[in-house]
Structures are given as C-alpha cells and as structure tokens.
Amino acid sequence: MNSIINQSVNLMQKSEKAYKNDNKDKWSNLRTKAKELLKSNGYTYLGAGDYRFVYKLPDENKVLKLYRNSLGKRENKIECENFENAPKEIKENHLAEIYKSDFDGKWLIQEYIPHECAANEAKELSNKLKDNNYYIAEINAWNVGKDNDGNIVAFDYAGN
C-alpha cells in the first residue's frame, strides 16, 4: 500500500479512537488532516457516503475508498466479497474492478467509472444482475456509470 494511503488510514484510526472517547474536536481535526494529506498529494476528492470517502488517485483511472467509520470497513469488505463472488460475465462487464484492498476493510482501490447513467440504464443493470441470479441492493442511477466500452457498470455495490 502506498505510504500516503497508509498515513491517511493511521489518521482515520486515530480519529475513530477520538470519537469513541467522545473527543469530537480531535476527531474532526484528524479527519481534516487525512483529507488534506490526500489532497496535497494529488488525490481528488469525489465525494462521500455515510461510511466512506472516495478519492480519485493521481494520474490513474482508479479510486480510493477510505473508511469513515466501522460501517465503512464493513462496506469495503462486502464490496470485495461481492466482486469476488460475482459470476464471470457480471464481474468482467458490470462491476468496477477492485484491484487491491485492506484485509480489515480500511480501504480499497477500485476502477474509476464516470457517473454517467440514467435511471432506466441502472434498472437495466439491476435486471441483468437478477437474470444471472446475482443480487445487490441499491443498484440505481447514483451508483452506476459507463466504462470505456459503453457497458453499464456498478461502482458502489456494497449493498446486500
């Protein structure tokens, strides 16, 4: 794992501990430091959900999904499991590839898929997954896009 990601993970672990100790100022400051560290090293902040931050890696067509809390670790692990257990056709054509991940779910590196899909295209992907007896909760226009070949691809598929 790259040292910048490692340093960010360490800051997030410290922030998690501060949160558990009810030290909200320290928690906030540590999270801000993690964000600033990534930004100053060329990572582009793309957004966040309730449990994870997402950054585009510098000069690469990949993203970092960094946990925000214990549920973020869980989502990263589930996303890795969903990718590994997907049928070959689904995995190769309709799920953003996961290149690397932390065993504990603190981070994962995934293929970057631009967010460019309409609701009917997300529904089409959802139906295709079901036709292959593969179920992921929450496939919608918010978490799918298109790859360079025009395939509809889920990039957030931690839902179960």
Mind explaining what this structure looks like?
This protein has helices at 3-20, 24-40, 70-85, 88-94, 119-131; strands at residues 44-48, 52-56, 62-67, 98-101, 107-111, 144-146, 152-154. The strands form two sheets. It has a five-stranded antiparallel β-sheet with strand order 1-2-3-5-4, with helices on both faces. The chain is elongated and about 50 Å long. 44% of the residues lie in helices and 19% in strands. It has a single domain (3-114), classed as Phosphorylase Kinase, domain 1 (2-Layer Sandwich), CATH 3.30.200.
User: How is the CATH topology named?
Assistant: Phosphorylase Kinase, domain 1
The tally of domains stands at 1
Helix content: 40-55%
Average of the residue pLDDT scores: 91
What's the CATH C level? Alpha Beta
- Count every beta strand, where a strand is a DSSP E run of 2 or more residues: 7
Shape: elongated
- CATH 2nd-level architecture: 2-Layer Sandwich
Q: What ranges have pLDDT less than 50 throughout 5 or more consecutive residues? A: none
